[in-house]
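Quick one: C-alpha cells for this chain, please?
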Amino acid sequence: MNKQIPGLLSPKDFRTAVDRTDITTIMVAVPDMMGRLQGKRLNARIFLDRIDNGLNASEACAYILATNVRMDPLGAFDLTGWDHGFQDIGFVADLDTLRVLPYMPGVALVHCDAVHPDGTPLEIAPRRILRSQLDQLAEIGFEVRVGLESEFVLCKGLQPVVQHNLDYALDHPPALSDFLQHLAEALPEAGVPIEATKTEGAPGQVEVTFPYGPALHGCDNYTVYKQTVRHLARGHGLTATFMATPFTAVGSGLHIHLSLWQGGSPAFTASSGETLPETMQHSIAGLLSAMPHLAPLYAPNPNSYKRYATAHSFAPQYMNWGHDNRGCAIRVTGHGEGTHLEIRLPGADANPYLALAASLAAMTHGLTEKLTPPERCRGDAYTDQQTPPVRRDLAEALAYFNGSSLATSALGAGVVRHYASAAEAEITEHRRQVTDVERERGFDRA
C-alpha cells in the first residue's frame, strides 16, 4: 500500500482504494455472542461484485451465534444445532462501518448484520438486539449517546506485565509504555477515537475511555478496539485478558456512560444540587428495577460474578445509586448539560451491544412505567444493605432471567431463550470442571 488510508471509509473511497489495489482484502464480520468479530476474509473485488448485485456480503455457519467462548458446536439453541444440520446465515454489510486497520496493510473491515436465508433479520444477533432497544426509545422520543470505559489486564504469560499498583501513573516500564503508545496511535487510524488511556489499580491493568457518540457506532468501535488490543499485545509478546476477574480480587469492568437526548437537547441536564430531572429519575429507577432480571446479558459467565465478590473493589455489590459514588451500581456523574449515568455492572467480559441493550431496556421500563428511584446511597455503598444485592452467580441470574415477564416483554421470548441456553451451557460446563483451587485445598487433605 503506497499510502495508508486513515480510519473510516466512504463506499466511494473504498471502491477507489480497491481499484488502485491499495485494498485487496476485506474482513466481513458479525459480532458474536461474546462481542468478538467473526467472519471471513474476502477478495475485495468479489465483495464489491456481490454488493453491486444486491447479494449478501458472505455466509457463515449459524453456530457462530450459538456457541460458547471456545467455539464448541452446541445443540441447545432454537437457531441451530445438530438437529438443524448447522445451516448457514447471511451477512449483510453495513457500508457505514467500512474502515482500514493500520496494522494490517491492504485489509479493510466491515461490520455486518446477520440474516436468515430469506433475508429477515436474525433477532438474536447482538447488533440487532441493540437496534431494537434504540428503536423502542426512539418511539417515545429519545436518542441515546454513549461513551464506553474499558478495562483489561496486560500479561506476560499468565502473570501481569507489572506487579504493582500503577493507578494514574505517568511513568511506566518500557514494555507497557511501548504498548500504550502503539495502541494510542493505532486506534484513531482505525477510525476509533479515544479520549484517554491510563493504568489502573490492579497489576497490569489498563483503562481506555472513548468519547460520547451514537450508541451503535460506539459498540462497533469497541469491537475494533478489542481486536486491536489483542493484535498489538501479541506483537509485543504479551496477552491482553478481558476476563471480568482474571485473578482473585482483581476486577475489570466495562462501564457504560450514557445519556438520553430529546429534540436535540440533553434530557439529563441537572440544573443544580441534587435535583435530577424526571427523565433521569425514571431511568435510574428502571435500571435498579430491571437490571437484576437481565444479568446474563451483562454478566454472561460464571467468572463475571466473582468481580462482585470483593467489597471496596470498585465493582458494585448492591443495586444502589449515588451521586459521584464509584461503589454504586448506578453512578450519577458529570455537570450541567454533561450530567449522565454510569452503569458499573458490566464486567470486561461483557458484550457491549448486549450490556447496553439491557441498560436501555431497563431505562425504557422505568420511563414508560414512570418509576421512582429509592433514596440515593449517601455513604459507603458496600454497607448499603437496605438495597438488594447484585446476583451472586450465573445460576441465580439465569433463574431470574429465564421466564422473566419483564425480560420477555423487553427482549422477546426468542432472545430470552437463546441467551438462557447460552448461560445454561456455561453453568453445565463449569459444574463438571475440577479447578486448581479445589486441588490446592483438598488434594492431600480430603
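DSSP finds twelve helices and 17 strands in the chain.
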